[in-house]
Amino acid sequence: xxxxxxxxxxxxxxxxxxxxxxxxxxxxxxxxxxxxxxxxxxxxxxxxxxxxxxxxxxxxxxxxxxxxxxxxxxxxxxxxxxxxxxxxxxxxxxxxxxxxxxxxxxxxxxxxxxxxxxxxxxxxxxxxxxxxxxxxxxxxxxxxxxxxxxxxxxxxxxxxxxxxxxxxxxxxxxxxxxxxxxxxxxxxxxxxxxxxxxxxxxxxxxxxxxxxxxxxxxxxxxxxxxxxxxxxxxxxxxxxxxxxxxxxxxxxxxxxxxxxxxxxxxxxxxxxxxxxxxxxxxxxxxxxxxxxxxxxxxxxxxxxxxxx
Length: 308
Fold this sequence. Notes:
single chain, D-Maltodextrin-Binding Protein, domain 2, 12 strands
């Protein structure tokens, strides 16, 4: 058996994490053909298929499963003891950072972050993904996700670190002529109205729903949907109310035909955070990125800035 090219180990690690050639290529920031070539070389070296297609995924063979633990150990050691010892120069780096962001998270964080990256690291790039909590935990642990930003419900653990950046409250989104232009909403108004309710696992809406239940408030929900983006059109054309995070209310109110008012009850505030795994805690590039995020957003909600 020929000596194994150690440059193939990151590809093998990415294939374990992504279970697809295209996903591994995105995670590594390389082309799909280069990953395919690396997989062919790995198959030739180990004289095994290593990964076989089952539906839309590539599942590891028994021979590949035996490689998972040693490959993970080697790559963890490389990152913690070798890569971490090397300095990170954003001006010279071509690294692609993978960030976990919701659609609202992209609107909140990416404009300022991408501007800063262009100024400080013109060769840097960002890949934005949005994973449910269980998959996000796995992605942070295996290194396929560098950093998660936003409201991160249910992601506690000994190997996870969080930093709160700022907090946001909720607002009631209404059409422009709601209540004859009234700037406040009474609790009777709120309870008598029809409501559009967003239902998404692990999102800020879960916190809002718990608060309403704790207050004994029961609203009339005429629409329940997992999607935020249909809300502005529906509210603008009806008497419906949608209670949404402040940032989303501010964005939607710019579209015309919509505005927002404070909720008429003690609404919760949600922390917007950055979250990362212990495996990247000392990674110079990840450390630089987290410091940049803290510099841009700690104590500063970008949605709260006055519009120029």
